[in-house]
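Lecture notes, part 5. Sequence design as translation. It can be helpful to think of inverse folding as translation between two languages: the language of shapes and the language of residues. The source text, in structure tokens, appears below.
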């Protein structure tokens, strides 16, 4: 696997197949916990740990796991790492644990993780599985941060708890409410769709002039 192949494998999840903005997966935590940038990054780190560890272990055991029980085995593996993350977050910060709530445990059923285990890790050696998982994790984390940053800036006038505007700023309360998550996600999806259409138009113009 060349460096170019590794880079392409990594960037697939970051941009071309971004879990949130392209494949539109994992929206439950994306909409629920992104009321602040800190929550978004924390959920991204937790998901990164579970996704990368699970994919590497699935890849290592891919030839030993019977096809008939592969999904159940993947879920057990994922649940094990989710339990580790759950206890780690409780040990680091109870406030953060309360903020993320049940969505930590719900990482077990995150379709991004199970999908990567089934579609990629179970068919590839550990290194490609790790690279792909890291790319998907970074793409997911960036997506969460994009949502959380906008919602915190508009909904609280701050970023990572640091005030950005003066006392005259009136927070957009809707942004820290559930509808705010849908509004911000819709705007990001519109932006990505516009960028994709622009890319397609440029490719068509180049093809016409060739």
């Amino acid at each position: 696997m060349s460096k170019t192949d590794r880079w392409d494998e990594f960037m697939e999840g970051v941009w071309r197949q971004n879990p949130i903005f392209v494949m539109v997966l994992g929206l439950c935590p994306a909409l629920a916990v992104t009321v602040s940038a800190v929550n978004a990054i924390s959920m991204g780190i937790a998901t990164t740990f579970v996704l990368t560890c699970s994919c590497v272990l699935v890849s290592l055991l891919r030839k030993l796991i019977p096809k008939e029980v592969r999904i159940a085995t993947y879920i057990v593996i994922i649940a094990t790492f989710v339990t580790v993350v759950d206890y780690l977050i409780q040990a680091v910060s109870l406030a953060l644990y309360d903020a993320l709530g049940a969505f930590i445990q719900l990482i077990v059923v995150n379709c991004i993780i199970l999908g990567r285990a089934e579609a990629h890790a179970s068919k590839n050696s550990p290194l490609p599985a790790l690279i792909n998982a890291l790319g998907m994790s970074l793409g997911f984390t960036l997506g969460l941060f994009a949502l959380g940053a906008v919602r915190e800036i508009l909904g609280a006038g701050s970023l990572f708890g640091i005030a950005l505007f003066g006392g005259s700023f009136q927070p957009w309360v809707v942004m820290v409410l559930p509808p705010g998550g849908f509004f911000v996600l819709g705007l990001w999806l519109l932006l990505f769709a516009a960028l994709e259409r622009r890319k397609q138009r440029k490719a068509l113009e180049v093809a016409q002039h060739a």
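The translated text above is only one of many valid answers, since several sequences can fold into similar shapes. The chain is about 70% helix and 0% strand.
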